[in-house]
Amino acid sequence: MTTRVAVVGATGKMGRLISRLVEEADGYELVASLDSSSELSEMLGADVAVDVTMPGVTERVVEFAVENGIRVLVGTSGWSQDRIDALARQVDGRDNTGVVIIPNFSVGSVLGSAFAALASKFFDSIEIVETHHASKVDSPSGTAVRTAELIGAARGERGPVAAPHTDQRARGQQVSSIPVHSLRLEGVSARQDVHLGGAGETLTITHTTISADAYERGILLALDAARTVTGVTVGLDQLIDLGLDRGLAGSAGAE
Fold it and tell me: Is the preceding peptide bond at 140 cis, omega within 30 degrees of 0?
C-alpha cells in the first residue's frame, strides 16, 4: 500500500531533502509540496503530513492535520513540553491520527543524547553547549532541550545538577536544571557538547553533523512510524532500540 505524503515547508533545506527521499523510497508518493504561500487545505488527501516549517507556524500546521485525520511527522523545533502535553490531549482517543515529533533526525545525535543521560547519573556538574548555523532562528535547539529533559529524567531522585550563579544571563538558559548555551556561527552545520564534571575529572560527549546525509536514515525511520502512529511520540530514540531504559533500570542503585 502506498502512503501519500504532503511536505509542509517543502522549499527549505530539510523540506527539499525529505521530498527527495519520499520520491525515491518505495511505498511512498509525494502528493503535495506546501510553502509559505500555500493554503493548508492543499495537504488534504495525504495520509501523512511532514511539518518542517518554523516555530511560529508548526502548531497551526499540526492542528489542521490532526483535525482532518492526517497523521503528522514534525521536524520543526519549538515544541515545549507544555505544547506537547496540549497536543497529546488533542489527539487522545483519535484512532485515525497521531503525531511523531523528532527534534533531530540524526541517529548519531540520538545516541549522543542517550549516552549523556546514562552518564548524568554519575556527575553533578552538567552543562550543554549547542552550536548551529547563523540562520537558525530558535534557541536553544530542540535537540539540546530533548537532551536536557532526558538527563533530568535519568537522574531521578538524584535531583537537579549543580549549576551556580544561574541568575547571571551569561550562564545560559536552564532546562531541567541544566544550563544550555547556544552558539550561532557561520561555517557550522550542527554540533552539541554535553560537559559533565566530577571530582578530579570531566567527560565531554560530542556529536557533530557534517552534512545533511546524517538525517536520511532517521527521516525514513520516522516516516515509517508516522504511517500508523496514534497518540504523540517524541524523539527518534522512541523508534529505535537504544537499550536506554534497561541501562537506567540496571544502574538504579547508583542513584
Answer: yes
Whether residue 91 lies inside any domain: the answer is yes
pLDDT per residue as tens digits for the range 108-130: 999 999 999 999 999 999 999 99
Do the domain assignments include residue 59? yes
Which active-site residues does the annotation give?
132, 136
What are the residues facing 171 on neighbouring strands? Answer: none
What pLDDT does 245 receive?
A: 53
Are 41 and 15 in a shared domain? yes
Q: Is residue 129 part of a domain?
A: yes
SS3 188: coil
Alpha carbon distance 59, 52 (integer Å): 11
Write the burial class of residue 40 (CB in 10 Å: 0-12 exposed, 13-18 middle, 19+ buried).
Answer: middle
Number of domains in the chain: 2
Strand partners, 126: 196
Looking at residue 243, its pLDDT comes to 62
Torsion (CA) 140, 144, 145, 149 in degrees, nearest 10: -150
User: Which residue stretches of the chain have pLDDT < 50?
Assistant: 246-255
Please indicate, yes or no, whether residues 137 and 88 belong to a single structural domain of this protein: no
Q: Are residues 118 and 193 in the same domain?
A: yes
Q: What is the pLDDT of residue 255?
A: 32
CA angle 238-242-246, nearest 5°?
A: 100
The last residue of one of the domains, among 101, 118, 150, is 101
